[in-house]
């Protein structure tokens, strides 16, 4: 008989604002596993008191790829469903998932299209209109590329499917939280560049930063998002600028 069981996985750190709603949206899974990076807020307490069936593990954070691969190692089901704490699975997407994995023939992995929100308001453009991420996949392809610390992806997946309904992504809870995320990701990306022996160049730092703003604001229609578009385009440029700034320190 075909195994259609699902392990829902989350890696978290200080997600007391998000963890309860996120876990509620994956309660349909056969098992739920959370890997926490020793949160200092009430994340762990919320999980233990409100979600006793959740399997909770802790591990010191090094990078996203290592955390995801470790979390996968705890899973027992044929299907892996990865969710970030700031993402929500809608009832419609849940139905897509359950329907798809029960088909006689399936893909090995599936993209989820995402709708973004900034301070609770939907972002329509700024590059988010085409965003999609692999969030559902079989154990046989369940391994993230260890050469990428951030914006991690599976090692090798051919022709992933795409589910119809959207995953809701509340990544931009506030300017401050998104700014902090940009800085954190930039540090990790700088380490990736350093290990690839890419040298710091001021002209590359400036040109990439300027282009990223132009790409987000003009080419990806951030201008149509009003003030949100300006903010998100600026933060996109800041990400490039800080990545090379941290890269320069690696060579210092």
From TrEMBL:
<dbReference type="InterPro" id="IPR029044">
    <property type="entry name" value="Nucleotide-diphossugar_trans"/>
</dbReference>
<feature type="domain" description="Glycosyltransferase 2-like">
    <location>
        <begin position="7"/>
        <end position="106"/>
    </location>
</feature>
<dbReference type="Pfam" id="PF00535">
    <property type="entry name" value="Glycos_transf_2"/>
</dbReference>
<dbReference type="InterPro" id="IPR001173">
    <property type="entry name" value="Glyco_trans_2-like"/>
</dbReference>
<protein>
    <submittedName>
        <fullName>Glycosyltransferase family 2 protein</fullName>
    </submittedName>
</protein>
<comment type="similarity">
    <text>Belongs to the glycosyltransferase 2 family. WaaE/KdtX subfamily.</text>
</comment>
